[in-house]
Amino acid sequence: MNLTIITVGKLKEKYLKDAVEEYSKRLSRYCKINIVEVQDEKTPENASKKDEDIIREKEGARISKYINDSMYVVAMDLKGNTMTSEQFSDFIGNLGLQGRSNIAFIIGGSLGISREILQRADYKLCFSKMTFPHQLFRVMLLEQIYRGFKIMKGEPYHK
């Protein structure tokens, strides 16, 4: 299975980079993982709704360069569906059984994901109704993907 995480912005904090590296290493037993960082746009202090839409569109255009037709696209979206870790494991496993082994997870910037990317998405997933920094969310997503593979394989993992 090939998993691509396309995310807006670069990690700056060493502890987050270390966590991403650790989960990527753990995941290498189960799948091929590729993390693509696209440049984020600076958001002015008092940005209008129109300014925010333009920023999301620019970031979305950068994201779309890394999405190809063979990818099953999962957009991380506050309005998306929620699931348990077990359901997430089944979700990934079922995609593989359906021959959808090229999955892209999209993490937007601080303003979210552009309308175009959301329309392209095959599935919209929400981890929580809470808001998280997108840099931290990358680690959370990798951890849940790793947990999903452990569940799928019937291997022990802390609860």
What is this structure, in a nutshell?
This protein is α/β, with parallel strands linked by helices and 159 residues long. The chain has 5 helices and 5 strands, in the order E-H-E-H-E-H-E-H-E-H. The chain has helices spanning 14-27, 49-64, 85-97, 115-120, 134-152, and strands at residues 2-8, 32-38, 72-81, 102-107, 123-125.
List the helices and strands and how they pair.
Blueprint lengths: L1 E7 L5 H14 L4 E7 L10 H16 L7 E10 L3 H13 L4 E6 L7 H6 L2 E3 L8 H19 L7
Parallel strand pairs: 1-2, 1-4, 3-4, 3-5
Helix pairs in contact: 1-5, 3-5
Describe this structure in words.
The chain has a 5-stranded parallel sheet with strand order 2-1-4-3-5. Helix 1 packs parallel to helix 5 and helix 3 crosses helix 5. The longest helix has 19 residues, at 134-152. It has one domain (2-42, 49-152): Alpha/beta knot, CATH 3.40.1280.10. The protein has 159 residues and is of the alpha/beta class. Helix 1 (14-27) links the parallel strand 1 (2-8) and strand 2 (32-38). The protein contains 5 helices and 5 strands, in the order E-H-E-H-E-H-E-H-E-H.
What brief labels describe this structure?
about 160 residues; alpha/beta; Alpha/beta knot; 5-stranded parallel beta sheet; 5 strands; about 45% helix; tRNA_m1G_MTases_N
How do the helices and strands follow one another from N- to C-terminus? EHEHEHEHEH
Measured between the Cα atoms of the first and last residue, the distance is: 25 Å
CATH fold description: Alpha/beta knot
Strand content: 15-25%
Averaged pLDDT, please? 95
Name the CATH architecture. Answer: 3-Layer(aba) Sandwich
Radius of gyration: 15 Å
How many domains? The number is 1
Strand count: 5
The major pleated sheet works out as: 5 strands, parallel
**SSE-based structural type:** alpha/beta
Which sequence of strands runs across the widest sheet? 2-1-4-3-5
How many helices does DSSP assign? 5
The 3D shape can be described as globular
Low-confidence stretches: none
- The top level CATH class name: Alpha Beta
Keywords: Cytoplasm, Methyltransferase, rRNA processing, S-adenosyl-L-methionine, Transferase
Function: Specifically methylates the pseudouridine at position 1915 (m3Psi1915) in 23S rRNA.
Binding site for S-adenosyl-L-methionine: 108, 127-132
Pfam families: SPOUT_MTase
